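Morning run. Coffee first, then this:
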Amino acid sequence: MSTQEQVQEKVDISELLNNNTEIVLYNDDVNTFDHVIETLVKVCNHTSEQAEQCAILVHYKGKCTVKTGEFKKLQAQCLQLLDAGLSAELV
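And here it is:
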């Protein structure tokens, strides 16, 4: 018989809100690769190559984290992605 040890790490709520927020972009059947790439360059300040890689990942894997950072900054960027017709959420 083995004993399993559980460890609970204490994390400050501000750390969770400020540093661990991600924008996840999801695949859809509506938007073109070009539109997704252009939007990621404009909204998330990606390079063309980075935006293209994210678009390919979204297409083949179904989703991709396109940005991480502070909740407040990412909230505005996520809204811009949604306004552009992309499927995205903050996690």
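The mean pLDDT is 89. Good start to the day.
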